[in-house]
Amino acid sequence: MLFRSSAAICGAMVMLAISATVARSEIVAAHSSAVVNAASGDAIVGAASMYNPFRPGWREGGSNTASGERYDPSVWAAAIRTSLRQKFGGVQFGARPKYALVEAAGKKVIVKINDVGPLTPGRIIDLNERTMRHFDPSLQLGVIKEVTVKPLSGDYWIPGPVG
């Protein structure tokens, strides 16, 4: 009986420790604007559009990104103009993804830069579908003008909206 009680108490302590660790990691997951701004590089300003190679009629890219990952419309990701590749750490096959802060219309989001492309002239970044919906929920605009993109230093950012 004493052994069962000790095991139950030990199990409860382990669960408490795990839940505290999970809670702390969830708090760390939300990047504050101050933290993101402190880690940002020089800003690039231009226009953004959306790409999704799985939609009929879309001419850009294929199903695999420059990093070797498969295009996923449900993650926070983007393709940077090929001429900006080095500014974003040389997005390349098999390398760790790079991250950027994208700002437009009073909204900020961290995206994983996992692709490059020759993009339409005047565009600096192509957002995947989820990221574009953050700025244009109906996807009616097609192009977002006056987008600011800043490379983020470090490899361990959590993509998504910045609070």
Automatic annotation (TrEMBL):
Q: Cite the CDD domains for this sequence.
A: DPBB_RlpA-like (cd22268)
**Pfam families according to UniProt:** DPBB_1 (PF03330)
Where do the RlpA-like protein double-psi beta-barrel domain residues begin and end?
A: 45-144
The alphabetical list of record keywords is: Signal
Keyword Signal, does the record have it?
yes
What residue range is the signal peptide? 1-23
Q: Which residues form a coiled coil?
A: none
InterPro entries assigned: RlpA-like_DPBB, RlpA-like_sf
The lineage's top-level taxon is Bacteria
Q: What is the official name of this protein in its record?
A: RlpA-like protein double-psi beta-barrel domain-containing protein
Please name the source species. Answer: Bradyrhizobium hipponense
